[in-house]
Amino acid sequence: MASSTPYLVLLLCLASLLQQASLIAANPPHEPPPDDSREKFAKWATKYAKTYPSHEEEEKRFGIFKDNTNQIGAFRAQTSTTVVVGGFGPQTITTVRVGMNRFGDLQADEFAQQFTGFNSTGFIPAEPSIIPNHTWKPCCVDWRSSGAVTGVKFQGSCLSCWAFASVAAIEGMNKIRTGELVSLSEQELVDCDSGSSGCGGGRVDTALALVAARGGITSESDYPYSGFNGKCDVDKLLFDHDASVKGFKAVPINDESQLELAVAQQPVTVYVDASTWQFQFYSGGIFRGPCSGDPAKVNHAITIVGYCEEFGEKFWLAKNSWSNDWGEQGYIKLAKDVAWPTGTCALASSPFYPTA
Ligand SMILES: *[C@@H]1O[C@H](CO)[C@@H](O)[C@H](O)[C@H]1NC(C)=O
Ligand SMILES: *[C@@H]1O[C@H](CO)[C@@H](O)[C@H](O)[C@H]1NC(C)=O
């Protein structure tokens, strides 16, 4: 072997290699590219139809865009590692990917303030329902392949993640039970759930409790999403039901094996900490953080629609409500069965699912 080879030869198994990926020397440094960030920003602003009220604001947003672009570039260099595996030659292994998306002109704290929406005020953990360990559970689940998941939606600048997470779980249950996949109304929850604050943030348990008390929920087409607080259409809430719901259950907290049993039955809502820029710009692979595993830090609700493993690494598959421009076509894979009980980004801290 030529001594000039720039690659480290490792006779380690893939799993430990991935764990050590951040410790291994990354690609050799390249010449810094010419600064074309103005052009990139203009292209990006056109793509997402961004306009700003003033020149000052535009300059401020350009600065943030540039910082985000640089952060993304630096993170990529850190997380891709070129290695020689067995006799297969150099391979680039990327554990998690980040990339520019529609949220490019926002700092992580601004982003969390505008696009999440879990408000924990008044939240008391519900009595958990234990699922027996011997319950049937396949090694991989993807409710999309059973047609139990609607297309990825976009909550817009409304703190309604809780409504989207609840609806995705109800849509899944309804399809599994009736064989029909019907897109259901987040707006009804935004307008009518008095336990939540509409576009000011809310909770999955109050939303599911409302739907259970009324016996069902209206379809998306009958009660479409506006992304603003509106007046509750009581007739639709009471009488126009396109999926029926009888109640909801809480998965025992901080127990990924119970969560797995629940997800094997149907899609399940979870709360996560989505406040880091790596989560904001996640674009694929298995996300392991940074994010907080502290249940007190969760700020966003998503719906787990499956689990599996790739390259020997286990993950949860979750549907988000940030359009299919974010993540893996709108989804995120979160590391599963981690060393701490609350799970990646505290996802195991308070999962719920509806019943019929
Ligand atoms: C069920 O399985 C989990 C994980 O394997 C284990 O920790 C738990 O003790 C089991 N519970 C019972 C009641 O056997
Ligand atoms: C959280 O919800 C409570 C109760 O609905 C509400 O009074 C409060 O204003 C909300 N907090 C925020 C930050 O919106």
Q: At CATH's second level, what is the architecture of the largest domain?
A: Alpha-Beta Complex
* Shape summary: globular
Number of domains: 2
Distance between the termini: 65 Å
Strand content: 15-25%
**Radius of gyration, CA atoms, in whole angstroms:** 22 Å
Q: What fold name goes in the CATH topology slot of the largest domain? A: Cathepsin B, Chain A
Count of beta strands: 14
Share of residues in helices: 25-40%
Structural class: alpha+beta
Number of helices: 10
What is the mean pLDDT?
89
Described by strand count, sense and barrel closure, the largest sheet is:
7 strands, mixed
- What is the level 1 CATH name of the largest domain? Alpha Beta
- CATH superfamily name of the largest domain? Cysteine proteinases
Q: Cofactors and ligands present?
A: 2-acetamido-2-deoxy-beta-D-glucopyranose
Unreliable segments (pLDDT under 50, ≥5 consecutive)? 1-25
Domain Peptidase C1A papain C-terminal: 137-355
Signal peptide: 1-26
Keywords: Disulfide bond, Signal
GO biological process, one term: proteolysis
